[in-house]
Amino acid sequence: MNKNLLKLAKRREHLVIKAEAQRLTVSQSLDIWRKPLSIAGHGLNVLRYVRNHPFMIAGGSTALLSIIRPNGFGKWFQRVWLAWQILRKLSKKSKS
């Protein structure tokens, strides 16, 4: 009976060493992908933020563009704002 336990213990030790070597090999293989996956993760976080805060992004973009090009952008922004308000009012009337 002790021979069987000794045999099992040696087998277990061998398997543990083999598993550790395999983990190390897999870890080294995945190191190549660590940086690209990190960049992709940051990109997804940015997309989620934009999706959850569209008005904040639009407002910030509007403010930035109005600072960079105040004359031309202001005219177009006024036109787009007016068109949006008209379309919104028309859509409310068509629903009722």
Summarize it:
With 96 residues, this protein is mainly α. The protein is 96% helix and 0% strand.
Using brief descriptors, characterize the structure shown.
96 residues, 3 helices, 0% strand, elongated, mainly alpha
Question: What does this 3D model show about the protein?
Answer:
This protein is mostly helical and 96 residues long. It has helices at 2-52, 54-68, 70-95. The protein folds into two domains: 1-52; 56-96. It has three helices and no strands. Helix 2 packs antiparallel against helix 3. The chain starts with a helix and ends with a helix. The mean pLDDT is 83.
- Supply Rg: 31 Å
User: In DSSP terms, counting alpha (H) and pi (I) runs of 4 or more, how many helices?
Assistant: 3
Alpha carbon gap, first and last residue? 87 Å
- Please estimate the helix content: over 70%
Largest pleated sheet: none
Shape: elongated
How many strand segments? Answer: 0
Mean pLDDT: 83
Q: Low-confidence runs (pLDDT<50, min 5 residues)? A: none
Question: Could you say which structural class the secondary elements and strand pairing correspond to?
Answer: mainly alpha
- What number of domains? 2
- In terms of DSSP E residues, the strand content is under 5%
The helix/strand series, from N terminus to C terminus, equals: HHH
